């Protein structure tokens, strides 16, 4: 498949991933997929995010035409080996943010790309440090509505950045789609970095 005839599907309805992929100037369509997002017993966080991203792209491929490339991702917040996932409610968010307060955690973002029988993967690992967060700040943040569907109960691209004192790694990876790693995968489809930097033509 030549890049100029590339058909690409993003197997995610996340507005953050849609916005990040859109920065490349590529035409793409969005496809909703549903996979179980639950770590297996003893499963390492890195293995988990890779597995979920792979499952999303695989499901997307079953729903898409055969000539279409499918991109998917999974992002998780990890502290002391524990995968946080998304908050189930206010108290769960308070617990998450309370544990992250004043500490450094990891954000793992796996990307999976499929075309035909081919499959490519990449992983971004970032380290984020939070300042001490007061309980009333957590309550106010929850009331804003921002944390409800976010891994670790915060959005670094939104009000959640107020908690961050240090970031080592990829800002876009913490958002949900690491651009450097994604660009590397898109090279397999004939899209060189300079074309992405210029805004790939339709």
UniProtKB/TrEMBL annotation:
Enzyme Commission numbers on file: 3.6.1.9
Q: Which organism is it from?
A: Methylococcus geothermalis
The catalysed reaction is: UTP + H2O = UMP + diphosphate + H(+); dTTP + H2O = dTMP + diphosphate + H(+)
In this chain's numbering, which residues are marked as the site (Important for substrate specificity)? Answer: 16, 75, 157
Gene3D superfamilies tied to this protein? 3.90.950.10
> What subcellular compartments does it reside in?
Cytoplasm
Instruction: Spell out the protein name for this chain.
Output: dTTP/UTP pyrophosphatase
Record's Pfam families?
A: Maf
Root EC class: hydrolase
An annotated GO BP: nucleotide metabolic process
GO terms for molecular function, please?
nucleoside triphosphate diphosphatase activity
User: Per UniProt, which keywords does this protein have?
Assistant: Cytoplasm, Hydrolase, Nucleotide metabolism
Q: What does this protein do?
A: Nucleoside triphosphate pyrophosphatase that hydrolyzes dTTP and UTP. May have a dual role in cell division arrest and in preventing the incorporation of modified nucleotides into cellular nucleic acids.
Listed cofactors: a divalent metal cation
Query: Which residues of this protein are catalytic?
Result: 74 (proton acceptor)
Q: Which family does the UniProt entry place this protein in?
A: Belongs to the Maf family. YhdE subfamily.
One GO cellular component term: cytoplasm
């Amino acid at each position: 498949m030549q890049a100029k005839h590339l058909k690409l599907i993003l197997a995610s309805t996340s507005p953050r991933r849609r916005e990040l992929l859109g920065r490349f100037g590529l035409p793409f369509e969005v496809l909703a997929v549903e996979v179980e997002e639950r770590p297996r017993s003893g499963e390492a966080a890195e293995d988990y995010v890779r597995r979920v991203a792979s499952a999303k792209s695989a499901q997307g491929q079953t729903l898409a035409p055969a000539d279409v490339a499918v991109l998917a991702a999974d992002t998780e917040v990890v502290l002391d080996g524990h995968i946080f996932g998304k908050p189930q409610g206010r108290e769960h968010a308070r617990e998450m943010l309370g544990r992250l307060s004043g500490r450094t955690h990891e954000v793992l973002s796996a990307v999976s790309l499929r075309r035909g029988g081919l499959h490519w993967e990449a992983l971004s690992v970032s380290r984020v440090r939070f300042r001490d967060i007061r309980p009333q700040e957590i309550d106010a943040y929850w009331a804003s509505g921002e944390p409800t569907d976010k891994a670790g109960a915060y959005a670094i691209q939104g009000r959640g950045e107020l908690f961050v004192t240090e970031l080592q790694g990829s800002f876009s990876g913490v958002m949900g789609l690491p651009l450097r790693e994604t660009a590397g995968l898109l090279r397999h489809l004939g899209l060189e970095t300079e074309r992405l930097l210029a805004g790939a033509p339709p």
